[in-house]
Amino acid sequence: MKQIIFLVCIALFGNYSFAQYSGAAEVMDSVNAALDANRLDKAFHIYAEAMKQMPESDSLYISRAALNYMIGSFRDAATDYEKAYLLTTNDTLKLSSLISVASAKAGYRDFKGAESTLLVALKMDPEHIETLSNLAVVYDELGKRKEAIAYLEKIIEIDDAFFPAYVNLGFISQKMDNQKKAIEFFDKAVVLNPDEPFTYNNRGFSYYELGDYDKALEDINHSLSIMKTNSYAYRNRAFVYMKLGQKEKACNDLYTALEYGYTDQYGDEVITLYKQYCNE
Q: What gap in Å lies between CA 149 and CA 141, rounded to an integer?
């Protein structure tokens, strides 16, 4: 369960002429035109002016929230989604708005706040899979793995073909150093979605942890055959080669992981290892 890191972009507003909008659809057209022209500042200005004219438009708040989320302004996104939740009378939209509020809170690492929001959503629909799945992620982040596992297992009771539940159960099992159990979950995930590269990579890492380097290489190589730009797979394969004493191959993979953006995606682990291991 990885977190996606968005770059925060600060919008600087200029002077724009005041426009009259006939409805939210027209506003969206103007916002999209501004974004197509790489004018983020103008897009936010359009929202601000439109909301003065249509202060009760839930769709405007949802749309601006999505833009805030996309650029990494998670607190602003949460505020807008909360406003949409209060404005809408549609129960489905209320539920999705709450889930989006929780996702935005998780974006700025307020997992307790995300938990509280998702529990409200759960009361609206106790068997809503997206709510249950997000709760599992939040509980895992909070270190409450028993609760996370319970929600994932509940999802499987509702829909035993829900692929992400098996993947997340595999992740949690890895964190609990139960690699054999993790492999069982990844096996089930592979059956449901045989073309998903990350599952093979993660199962390969479990085999690596168990010392079964042949199966580790088989899975990681298959992952890379599906997605050759997976920097984490090169990192994992480098670890296997290091255990096998194949330094040249290990260093080549560490270098390739860096070339495919490992540092930006996951941190400094690989570049530190490359300097220490490959420059000896």
A: 12
